[in-house]
Amino acid sequence: MYFDIAMPLTLFAVTLVSMLLNQKTEAKLKGTLEERKLGVWDAVLLVGMMSIMIFVIVFVRQISMVLMVMFLFAYSLLLFTFTYLFAKNRWYIGIIPPAIFVLLYVFFRFFNESVIWNLYLVDVYGLVFAVLITLYLVSLFTWRATAIFGVLITVMDIILVLVTGTMVQAAEATRSLNLPVMVSIPLIPLEITSAGVMMMSLGLGDFFFAGLLGIQTFKRYGKRFAVLSVASMTVSFFIFEVLLLVYLRRPFPGTLMIICGWAPLVLWKEFKNRRSSKEVAGSAAEQETKMPQ
After folding, report:
1. What integer pLDDT is reported at residue 111 of this predicted model?
2. Which residue has the higher pLDDT, 162 or 2?
3. Taking a C-beta distance cutoff of 8 angstroms, is the pair 240, 29 a contact?
4. Measured between alpha carbons, how far is 32 from 27 in angstroms, rounded to an integer?
């Protein structure tokens, strides 16, 4: 029987790091984003734009170079923004991390293809960008927008992975560029087949999704319950992954694996809080009627 603890633990660690770092970075990033917030329709539009982008990646093969430049620019801008903000607005320090990233990518892709990039650096950068993307975007979301976005992105993921397969094709197209768009790590316990070491891959979007849910839960219910929700997402992911490895053996929506651990716990918490509020309101009303006139 196959099982894996490496990717679930990686998901747990990245989500927890994003959640804890958000407390230190949110105030500074709010100034950069001018404290903007996404509404419900903004969340719907965002999911729609993501769907269109995935179809463009799959069906317009000629944009591979454009896609590469776009990703490099976005990643470099992200690295520069965080370095600049936390280096006390010193631009000459801010340009160092993105410059190193671009130079490493260009060198290993075009001049010296090596396992150093393909097996190590691409995953290291993938994990770094997963955290940075989460920290950068999460402040845009309200609790309501998060709920709407979570449902829509999961439905979209199910359709594009299980029904049309478009998401899988898009992942293969971007992976061919050796860009850090997903994290691939060997299974633990190690499994070796005739094709080599068995690997598990998870896209940066899935890491962002888990981080978004964890941080928003932190804001609404506090640290302890948020950590519990991250643990629940991790357990859910582990169970789904076992089913995938043993029975399905095919790509599966990571968002579904994550939200199935988060949603039941949060719905229970919401129900419990609302029930407590009604009981408190009922007690207050009863006391008011008993007060002497």
Report:
1. 73
2. 162
3. no
4. 9
Task: Please report, as a single letter, which amino acid is at residue 29.
Answer: L
Average pLDDT, the chain: 85
Residue 186 phi/psi, 5-degree rounding, is -65, 150
Residue 255 has pLDDT above 90, yes or no: yes
| Distance separating alpha carbons of residues 171 and 180, to the nearest angstrom | 11
Return the residue matching tokens 């691409």. Answer: 122
Name the 3-class secondary structure at 267: helix
How many beta carbons lie within 10 A of that of residue 180, not counting itself? 22
**The pTM is what?**
0.89
Please report the beta strands in the chain, taking only residues with DSSP state E, as ranges in sequence order: 182-186, 192-193, 196-197, 199-203
Give the number of residues written for the chain: 293
What does the alpha-carbon distance between residue 198 and residue 185 come to, in Å, rounded to a whole number? 9
Domain ranges of the chain: 6-271
